[in-house]
Write a structure and sequence with these properties.
Blueprint: H1 21-42, H2 46-51, H3 53-62, E1 69-72, H4 79-87, H5 122-136, E2 142-147, H6 154-166, E3 171-176, H7 187-197, H8 202-214, H9 217-235, H10 239-242, E4 246-252, H11 256-268, E5 275-280, H12 288-292, H13 320-334, E6 338-342, H14 346-349, H15 351-357, E7 362-364, H16 369-381, E8 385-389, H17 392-395, H18 399-407, E9 414-417, H19 435-440, E10 446-449, H20 453-465, E11 471-474, E12 498-501, E13 506-511, H21 515-527, E14 532-536, E15 539-541, H22 545-554, E16 557-562, H23 569-580, E17 588-592, H24 604-611, H25 615-631
Parallel strand pairs: 1-2, 2-3, 3-5, 4-5, 6-7, 6-8, 8-9, 9-11, 10-11, 13-14, 13-16, 16-17
Antiparallel strand pairs: 10-15, 12-14
Helix pairs in contact: 1-3, 1-4, 3-11, 5-6, 8-9, 13-15, 13-20, 16-18, 21-25, 22-23
The chain binds thiamine diphosphate, 1-deoxy-D-xylulose-5-phosphate and magnesium ion.
C-alpha cells in the first residue's frame, strides 16, 4: 500500500476544503498512487482515472459536493472520485461481486448524483438537475465532466443545444485527453486540437466579460455579443459559444495552480448561462506504463505496479471477438462489398484487425451508435454489405435507427452483437440482456445466436450471403471452447436448428451460448433416469417451427434456454406453440430466461448462477416439470 499520510486524513471532500494549495497538490500525488495501487489488484479502467486526479481534487475542493452535483460522464474515470468520497476502504472491491461498481452509481453514494457507464449522458442529466434547481428555488452548482470521446456522441449536442437556449447555469468540464478507447476520430476531435493550439487571448475576453457584467441586460447582451465577436476575431470563436456556452480555456488539467483559481472563478461568477471549461489532460498521466501504452491502459487486468506488466490469464482459446474478426476478414476477402462499421470500439469488436486488412472498408464513426446504424443503412441502399459491429448493450442507443432506418426498409444491414448476455465485471450497465427481445419483435429481422466459435464462423458466413434483409448475430464476451476452426465459415440454412442429442422425456432447446450448460444438464438428467433431447435452435427468427413442434409433440417437458430477458427466444417459441394448440396437450413448457431484475457485476459464472441459467438450475427445472407431468393424467393424443 502506498504511503498516503495526507490522503489518510480525507474522509470526505469537505476535508479538502481547509487544505492549502500545496497540501492539495500533495493529496493529488497520494491519490494517484492509491489509484494505481488499487487498480493493480482489481483491474479496471486505470487510464481515464489517472487523467482526472488533479481535476477530481480541485472540483471537490472548490465545490460543495454532494450539495453541488458532480456528474462523471461514462463514470469509468471515477475511481479517484470514489476514493475521495468515502469509498477508499472498499476501492479494492472494485468490479467484484458484492463490491463497488466500476462506474458511478446512485445507490452507491450520495456523491454519485447520476449513474453512468453508457457515454454522453452527463450534460443532459446535469441540465435536468439545473432546471430542477430553478424550479425548486434552490441554490447549487451542477458540474458535468465529459471526455472528448463522449463529446463525439449526438446526445451531447442535443444537451448543449438545449442548455445553450435555456441559459441554465451549468458547468460542463470538457476533459480533453485526445483519446477515446482508441485515438479519437471525427471532425470534433480535429476541432478540439485546433482550439487547443489556437490558445485564446483570455485577458481581452476577461475584460469584455467584466464589461458585459456591468451593463444592464440589453446592453449586457450587446457587450457579450461584442465579447464573442472579439473572440471570433481573436480566436475564431468556438463551437461551444455558438451553442450558447461561455467557453473558458483550454487550461492545463493537471496544474492545480490553474485549476483552482479558474474553478473558483466559475463558482463565484455571476455569469448567467452555461459555461464550458476546456481542460487538457493526459490519459494515464503519472504512470509510465500507462502513458507509454497505445491505449493508455484504458482497461487493464491486474498488474505489477513496478513493471506495469499485466497479469494475463494463461492463453486460452481465441475469444469470440477474435473469431468474429477472422470470419469477417475471410468473407471480405471473397466479397469486396463487405464493409464494417464500429462506434469507437475497434479493439472491443475486433474491427481493428479487420481495419488492418481492409482499411478502406472499415469505418470508426466515434461514439455514435445511432449514426453508425443509419450510415450502414445508407451503404446498404447502394448494394454494399455493411457489418455493423456494436455491443448488444450499446445498440440499445440506436434502437429507432434499427427499426425505422433498417428493419422497416428491409435493408440488409448485418448486426454483429458482441457481449451478448451477461458480461462480468462491467455489470448491469453493459449486460447484453435485451437484444433478442428488442430485435425479435421487429418484422424482417433474421436473428441468430452462436452456441460456440465454430457456429459463429458459420453465422458470419450466413450473414455475408443473406442479402434479403437485416440480420443480427449475437455472441458472448470471452473465450470460445477451443474448437478447430476452418479458414472460412459455411453458410447455414436460414431458420433451421440442429439436434445434438436425442431423447424421449425432456427436450432442452438452447438458443446461443448456454448450449454447453444444456448438454451438461442432459447428462445429469440421464443419470437420474430422464432421457433428454438437446437441440440448438441457431435462429430465433425465423424459428425452426418443424423442430419446435416435433420437440413439443414428442416430449413431456420442453425447456428453452437463452442468455436473454423475457420477451426473447422463449417468448417466440411460446407464441408459436400457443397458436398450434400444442400448449393444450399437457406439455410442460419452461422458458428459462434472465430474471426480471438487473444482475450486478461479478464473474460470469456467478452471474449466471444468480440468473438461474447454469446446468444445475436447468436440471432442477426439468425435474420439477417432469414431476408435474407425471402427476397429471396421461396426455391426450
Ligand atoms: C454509448 C457508449 N458507447 C461506447 C462506450 C464504450 N466506451 C467507454 S469509455 C469510451 C471512450 C470514452 O472516451 P472519453 O469520453 O474521451 O473518455 P476518456 O476515456 O478519454 O477519459 C468508450 C467508447 C460507452 N461507454 N458508451
Ligand atoms: C467503459 C466502457 O464502456 C468500455 O471500456 C467497456 O468497459 C469495454 O468492455 P469490454 O471490456 O467488454 O470490451
Ligand atoms: Mg478522452
Amino acid at each position: 500500500m502506498p504511503h498516503t499520510p495526507l490522503l489518510d486524513r480525507i474522509r470526505e471532500p469537505a476535508d479538502l476544503r481547509n487544505l492549502s494549495a500545496e497540501q492539495l497538490k500533495q493529496v493529488a500525488v497520494e491519490l494517484r498512487a492509491e489509484t494505481i495501487d488499487a487498480v493493480s489488484v482489481t483491474g479496471g479502467h486505470l487510464g481515464a482515472s489517472l487523467g482526472v486526479v488533479e481535476l477530481t481534487v480541485a472540483v471537490h475542493a472548490v465545490f460543495e459536493t454532494p450539495h453541488d452535483r458532480l456528474i462523471w460522464d461514462v463514470g469509468h474515470q471515477a475511481y479517484p472520485h470514489k476514493i475521495l468520497t468515502g469509498r477508499r476502504e472498499r476501492i479494492r472491491t472494485l468490479r467484484q461481486g458484492g463490491g463497488l461498481s466500476g462506474f458511478t452509481r446512485r445507490s452507491e453514494s450520495e456523491y454519485d448524483p447520476f449513474g453512468a457507464a453508457h457515454s454522453s449522458t452527463s450534460i443532459s442529466a446535469g441540465l435536468g438537475m439545473a432546471v430542477a434547481r430553478e424550479l425548486k428555488g434552490e441554490e447549487r452548482h451542477v458540474i458535468a465532466v465529459i471526455g472528448d470521446g463522449a463529446m463525439s456522441a449526438g446526445m451531447a449536442y442535443e444537451a448543449m443545444n438545449n442548455a445553450g437556449a435555456s441559459r441554465a447555469n451549468l458547468i460542463v468540464v470538457l476533459n480533453d485527453n485526445d483519446m477515446s478507447i482508441a485515438p479519437p476520430v471525427g471532425a470534433m476531435s480535429a476541432y478540439l486540437s485546433r482550439l487547443i493550439s489556437s490558445r485564446p487571448f483570455l485577458s481581452i475576453r476577461e475584460l469584455m466579460a467584466k464589461m458585459a457584467r456591468r451593463f444592464p441586460r440589453p446592453l449586457e447582451r450587446a457587450a457579450r455579443r461584442a465579447d464573442e465577436f472579439a473572440r471570433g476575431l481573436l480566436t475564431g470563436g468556438t463551437l461551444f459559444e455558438e451553442l450558447g456556452f461561455y467557453y473558458v480555456g483550454p487550461i492545463d488539467g493537471h496544474d492545480m495552480d490553474h485549476l483552482m483559481p479558474v474553478l473558483r472563478n466559475l463558482r463565484d461568477t455571476d455569469h448567467q448561462g452555461p459555461i464550458l471549461l476546456h481542460v487538457v489532460t493526459q490519459k494515464g498521466k503519472g504512470y509510465a506504463p500507462a502513458e507509454q501504452s497505445a491505449d493508455k491502459y484504458h482497461g487493464v487486468a491486474k498488474f505489477n505496479v513496478v513493471t506495469g506488466e499485466q497479469v494475463k490469464a494463461p492463453p486460452g482459446p481465441p475469444s469470440y471477438t477474435k473469431v468474429f474478426a477472422k470470419a469477417l476478414i475471410a468473407e471480405a476477402a471473397a466479397d469486396d462489398r463487405i464493409v464494417a462499421v464500429t462506434a469507437a470500439m475497434p479493439s472491443g469488436t475486433g474491427l481493428d484487425a479487420f481495419g488492418k486488412a481492409y482499411p478502406k472498408r472499415s469505418f470508426d464513426v466515434g461514439i455514435a451508435e445511432q449514426h453508425a446504424v443509419t450510415f450502414a443503412a445508407g451503404m446498404a441502399t447502394e448494394g454494399m454489405k455493411p457489418f455493423c459491429a456494436i455491443y448488444s448493450t450499446f445498440l440499445q442507443r440506436a434502437y429507432d435507427q434499427v427499426v425505422h432506418d433498417v428493419a422497416l426498409q428491409n435493408l440488409p444491414v448485418r448486426f454483429a452483437l458482441d457481449r451478448a448476455g451477461l458480461v462480468g465485471a462491467d455489470g448491469a450497465t453493459h449486460a447484453g440482456s435485451f437484444d433478442i427481445a428488442y430485435l425479435g419483435c421487429l418484422p424482417n429481422m433474421v436473428l441468430m445466436a452462436a452456441a460456440d466459435e465454430l457456429e459463429l464462423m458459420h453465422m458470419v458466413a450466413t450473414q455475408a450471403v443473406l442479402d434479403s434483409g437485416p440480420s443480427a448475430l449475437r455472441y458472448p464476451r470471452g473465450e470460445g471452447l477451443g474448437l478447430a476452426l476452418p479458414e472460412r465459415g459455411t453458410p447455414l440454412a436460414i431458420g433451421r436448428g440442429r439436434v445434438l442429442r436425442e431423447g424421449t422425456s425432456v427436450a432442452i432447446l438452447s438458443y446461443g451460448a448456454r448450449l454447453g450448460e444444456c448438454l451438461t444438464a442432459a447428462e445429469d438428467l440421464g443419470t437420474r433416469g430422464l432421457s433428454c433431447t438437446v437441440a440448438d435452435a441457431r435462429f430465433a427468427k425465423p424459428l425452426d417451427v418443424e423442430l419446435v413442434e416435433r420437440l413439443a409433440r414428442e416430449h413431456a417437458v420442453l425447456i428453452t434456454v437463452e442468455e436473454g430477458s423475457v420477451g426473447g427466444f422463449g417468448s417466440l417459441v411460446m407464441q408459436h406453440l400457443a397458436w398450434t394448440g400444442l400448449l393444450e396437450t399437457g406439455l410442460k413448457l419452461r422458458p428459462m430466461v434472465l430474471p426480471d431484475r438487473y444482475i450486478d457485476h461479478n464473474s460470469p459464472v456467478k452471474q449466471y448462477d444468480e440468473a438461474g441459467l447454469n446446468a444445475p438450475q436447468i436440471v432442477a427445472a426439468a425435474l420439477a416439470a417432469m414431476g408435474e407431468a407425471n402427476a397429471r393424467p396421461a396426455r391426450a393424443g
